[in-house]
């Protein structure tokens, strides 16, 4: 924009941040106006709470997702100054020496009235140039909205991916410890299998680690590209009508293509290997569960709790099911206070279930929350079409194949361990070690909504 020209425009029509006409203006509670895109860019990395860049007043948290381009106030102010544009800024037809007032969408170029009436343009539908420009800018804003959404999505993915990348090696090490503990020392012939098992785990863990590292890099780079493209689109909004017509097609295409190439998060899963003889060994401690039908109708908040934990702070994005989901909490009739006990539970094909053991005190408490003490559970929950496996408590995600069918639960009261076993594969799902049991433990099963 011509700077001498902008100087002559009343300051209330100019955005303080970009020093140009407002693009989709937004008024803060202090009364100062800015372009919505300018605020998006300024506040994206800013410390909370965000402040007005003019008077430094703290602005209440703004949900940009809902206000962004919510109203069609696009360039209302720009239109009002359009009449002030000097004639040199408009194009003059070289043949007819009059201002080009019309726009030909077929040729994507401005025309004068005489050219528009010529043979060549006879079948075209022409519109006033200001109206065509307005439509272009609206298209631009729609594109910006979509680009900003993609950027936010990418940023969210990046945060999750980076968090996983940071803890990944720790998880692999923990899993190796679990596996090592499941090989009994007495069977010398299993030493070779144990070694192979641990080596494959280390290799697989390393491959996923590198995938995560690459993905974090890609997502960071994409975040920068998306931001740059957004700034480019914002600048485009402020261009003269003539430049706008020329460059719009290209920039829209580039923006769309960029959004198609946003890196997807890795969904890491370590393989499960059979541990020879594990099922047979555990079967020596087999008990058959009978269920206590007197304890029931408790509200089990575990699934909601876990979902919350998984999705926060983006919990509001979750598709909420207002109807209360069908839980089926079941308790074993017997409690255990010593010894080794093994039982099996069929979870079938379901993605939402909880099995394990808990203290009586947990059952009696209202809500039965996840971060409580005295729960030794394996939880499977479906979030965003992905089945996730956790142990509790504390909640720890396990990145292994989802078990289906029969799951074995093995309690060693004196050793303070609970192991979960995939029965069909004779493989270890996970074990909770160094728990200290000091009171009766009751088997617990809960089937969540399918
Ligand atoms: Zn601005
Ligand atoms: Zn202010
Ligand atoms: Zn002409
Ligand atoms: Zn035409």
Describe this structure in words.
With 450 residues, this protein is α+β, with helices and mostly antiparallel strands. The chain has 3 domains: 1-89, Zinc/RING finger domain, C3HC4 (zinc finger) (Herpes Virus-1); 154-260; 278-447, Jelly Rolls, CATH 2.60.120.920. 38% of the residues lie in helices and 18% in strands. The chain has 11 helices and 16 strands. It has helices spanning 3-7, 36-43, 64-67, 76-82, 113-116, 129-182, 191-237, 241-260, 278-283, 302-311, 360-364, and strands at residues 25-27, 33-35, 102-104, 109-111, 127-128, 291-292, 328-332, 340-346, 353-359, 375-383, 386-392, 396-398, 406-412, 417-422, 427-432, 441-447. It has a 7-stranded antiparallel beta sheet with strand order 6-7-16-9-10-11-12. Strand 14 and strand 15 form a beta hairpin. Helix 6 (129-182) runs parallel beside helix 8 (241-260) and helix 7 (191-237) packs antiparallel against helix 8. The radius of gyration is 32 Å and the shape is elongated. The model is unreliable at 1-5, 65-89 and 312-324 (pLDDT under 50). The structure holds zinc ion (4 copies). One zinc ion binds at residues 93, 95-96, 112, 114-115. Keywords: Metal-binding, Zinc, Zinc-finger. Pfam families: SPRY, zf-RING_UBOX. GO terms for molecular function: zinc ion binding. Residues 15-56 form the RING-type domain. This is Tripartite motif-containing protein 77.
